[in-house]
Amino acid sequence: MSPEPLPTTLDVRKAAARGSVVSGAVELAKLLRLREALASGEGIITARCAFGRDEESRALVTVTVSAELTVACQRCLQPMPLAIESENTLAIVGSDEMAKQLPASLDPWVVAEEQGDLWDLVEDELILEIPVVAYCDTDACKQLLDAYRQPPETPETDGDNPFKVLEQLKPGATQQEN
Ligand SMILES: [Zn+2]
Fold first, then answer.
1. Distance from residue 45's CA to the centre of ligand 1 (Å)
2. Full-model pTM
C-alpha cells in the first residue's frame, strides 16, 4: 500500500503559525532535476514536513526525507540501490536578502509567494544527499577495482623503497643522470 501523496504546495507561513505537520509520498517521475542524477526512474520517496517557529519567531520547517533510489556505480556503471534518510531544518524567508541575514546554522528556504512548493523542497534535499561518487559493494565491482590496481612489473620491497627516495633527495643526485 502506498501512502497518501505529500501536498504539492502549502501556505507555509500559516503552516508555521499553526505548527502543521504534513507527510506523504512524492512521485519520483515529477522530480525532473533529481531524475537526471539517477540511473532509473523507479524509486520510492516519502517525506514529512513539520512547520513551526523558533524563539525569534522565525518560520521554520523540518523536512525529513526517506528514499530508495537507483544510481549508476561510478566504477562498473551498473545500477545500484541508494537509500537516503535525511533531516534538515530550514528557515522560511521571503527573499535572498532575508536569507543572507540568517545565522549560519540555518539554511534558508526562499518562498516569495504565499504557497511553498513542498515537492521542490524535497527534491532539493534529495539532490543534496546524493553522493557525487557512489560505488557499489558487489564482488564483481570490487574485482574491477583490483584489475586497476595491478602491481607494477618490478614491485619494490618495503626495505628498499625509502632508501631509494632518500637517494633521490640528496643534492647532486640528479647529476648521475647527465
Ligand atoms: Zn560497481
1. 23
2. 0.78
Q: Is 65 contained in some domain? A: yes
Distance 42 CA to ligand 1 centre (A): 19
Contacts 24+ apart (CB under 8 A), 145-152: 145/75
pLDDT of residue 173: 45
* Ligand 1 geometric centre to CA of 148 (Å): 13
Tens digits of residue pLDDT in 72-88: 999 899 999 999 999 99
Count of domains in the chain?
1
Q: How confident is the model at residue 146 (pLDDT cuts 50, 70, 90)?
A: confident
DSSP H or E segment with residue 53? strand 44-53
Whether 101 maps to a domain, the answer reads yes
Grid coordinates given for 129 = 544527499
Determine the distance separating the centroid of ligand 1 and the alpha carbon of 44, expressed in angstroms: 22
Cell triple for residue 144?
A: 574491477
Measured in Å, residue 142 CA sits from the centre of ligand 1 at 7
